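Thread: flavin-adenine dinucleotide complex, take 2
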Amino acid sequence: MHDIVIIGAGPAGLTAAIYALRANKSVLVLEKESFGGQITYSPKVENYPGFNEISGGELGEKLVEQALNLGAEIELDTVVSVKNPGSYKIVQCEHGQYQAKSVIIASGSRHRQLGLAREDEFTGNGVSYCALCDGAFYKDRAIAVIGGGNTALQDAVLMADQCSKVTIIQNLAFCTGEKKLIEILKGKKNVEFIFNTVVEELEGEEQLSSIMLRDLEHDKAYRFKVDGIFVAIGQQPDNKPFETLCKLDEQGFIIADESTVTSTPGVYAAGDCRTKKVRQVVTAAGDGAVAAMNACRFVESIEK
Ligand SMILES: Cc1cc2nc3c(=O)[nH]c(=O)nc-3n(C[C@H](O)[C@H](O)[C@H](O)COP(=O)(O)OP(=O)(O)OC[C@H]3O[C@@H](n4cnc5c(N)ncnc54)[C@H](O)[C@@H]3O)c2cc1C
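Output below.
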């Protein structure tokens, strides 16, 4: 029986481990894929406080090292379900089963990809999924934002202040985001909209230099030169293993606010996996600290 089982070894899960271990709790972290979480895919992080610049891989390694030095147990296994029979939780993995007094879910989310050839190869080299993370690398360059919802429009507003040109490429005949954002963008001289159009190919040597577009209305393909694209077509959480444990919203995010409290006592949700507006390393780490303190209090309350 562990005091706290943490699901996911990203910034939220590892920060939760650091806080819980410093409060003398026994902690097991379960990770299915990549110690350090999705930030390990980022070649350069410039907005995590305390580091002018650090690679995502190094930041992930430092988090893992800190948790291990404090005594965390970390296992590579995929959690398939969590049950709450009463005074403790049962965490079922592909290769084992664990018991815990409290569980912190820090399973993250993924940016939806375009599903094109060479997309992974160009990620960090002209293809980005986060304007807040990578926008500064495209100062005075020409970029395209793919998508027409609120995230895409907000990304375009942010990028229009620093890029020479911003083109919003939307597969529909209209944008689905807020009218106010559309008005702001229409008022900017360096912003243009291309509707009824999809990206079909990503081109370039090591760095993306152009994209092949298809005008769906006229069924015409053409090459479009860009220094970078920001893909903003939604986020995909992977919270299926927890759908009977706690309430999810219609997109599959665990319903929890800054308190990280879920609909199930003793179960907390931290980081990108929960309902929230800003999905970043620093907000994930903040959630991890809050979730750990809540879990520690819960464990102490059931021991009394
Ligand atoms: C390319 C890229 C660049 C980015 N750049 C920046 C940046 O510059 N600055 C910034 O602040 N943010 C950046 N981000 C966003 C940042 O990485 C995330 O906001 C942050 O990692 C969220 O942390 P998390 O711990 O909530 O989730 P994650 O980092 O997603 O970690 C969740 C972990 O849980 C594991 N997991 C999921 N389900 C299970 C399961 N069933 N069983 C076991 N393990 C499971 C996953 O494998 C994953 O390792 C970037 C993201 C990407 C992809």
